[in-house]
């Protein structure tokens, strides 16, 4: 009878290969084998232990993450014997373990040490570890700085594998900081390097970042293209993070297109117990779910997730958390308390970076003020929103706010590229245009609903958005606008 033995080094190589281009669960199991072989080289066990943590994180399994972190501690301690310098990997593991087991007070100092120990060096692996620690701390600016340094170090030696890994952190950090154009550029560079080096899991993550950037900046068709590509790989490999980001991007696009019920349904499914959302990213998605649910008339769904959103805000996982929580409370409130909550959200936004989310809060507040027949106040908020949207390149969102401004009585302005305001129906989504044409032809809302097989409430919602987008105030004006759009050129 023969027995088969495995080589710890072979298991480590196989596990790292699977982590780059294969199912995360398989990578985790293989790396755990390499980590736990008693006679393995201490440095190889160390590499396997850290990679096993990374694989568990990629799969979005909190229990597996905690187990991998606990198992890594003694391995790191053995490999650090005789070291004269602090071990940032040990601080990272201790901090992450404290964070996941509900001890944020201990997590912050340990993660902070990991960042400060590594950020000035030139070791690519330690710089990436520091970027990950900074993201866990919610310090996105430090993550951007350290990620950029890791990228520069990788480029200096022509290491495309490290370029792909560094851009994975850098693009995501820039996205979290609200710098969508920079996130897009880094993601494009990183994705090319990931494809060339066979890192399809990294490519999926970068596709998801590209989808989110496109949801803000356009073109809208890119959202579906990038999100579809990310989801195809991520679901095949069991990667929770790209799934979460790609579905979030699709929901944002649906919300911008005037389909809040679809966005809310998508995110509710994602956040369900078996929905596939990454446990550490749920808080980022919740504000979009609240906004979509309220716009779709389902306040109860918004109220249901506020406790989780409040806990995420308290965790300091994202510097914009307090402002986003206040915005969601404002959307769900009734009466004048709404105005106060929006004002407090504006103040909280001024304490952190992130032009797009700040613009969303100004936009939503301005729309609320206009509905309350306070056009002067509404115009002030909406103009600030336009300025911020333009600054972060969110042209599709800026165009919608300009229409809201016209509905609030502001004089028509010029688009960022110059030229007169549009008089066509180009600013409408296909669904909105179908409803606009039905109404222009004389159909009632109930007749439109029957014709398009949707609810009357859905027609009411879309028609309000059509009025805002076109700057019209009555069905008669809408019919005139449709006729002008269809008229042949002189």
TrEMBL record:
Q: Which CDD domains match?
A: LuxR_C_like
Matching entries from SMART domains are given as: HTH_LUXR
Q: Where is this region: Disordered?
A: 408-427
Superkingdom in the source lineage: Bacteria
- Keyword Zinc (UniProt): no
InterPro entries hit by this protein: Sig_transdc_resp-reg_C-effctor, Tscrpt_reg_LuxR_C, WalR-like, WH-like_DNA-bd_sf
Keywords attached to this Swiss-Prot or TrEMBL record, sorted alphabetically, are: DNA-binding
Q: Domain HTH luxR-type, which positions?
A: 421-486
Q: Which SUPFAM superfamilies match?
A: C-terminal effector domain of the bipartite response regulators
Provide the protein name.
Answer: HTH luxR-type domain-containing protein
The species this protein was found in: Isoptericola chiayiensis
Lineage, highest ranks first: Bacteria, Bacillati, Actinomycetota, Actinomycetes, Micrococcales
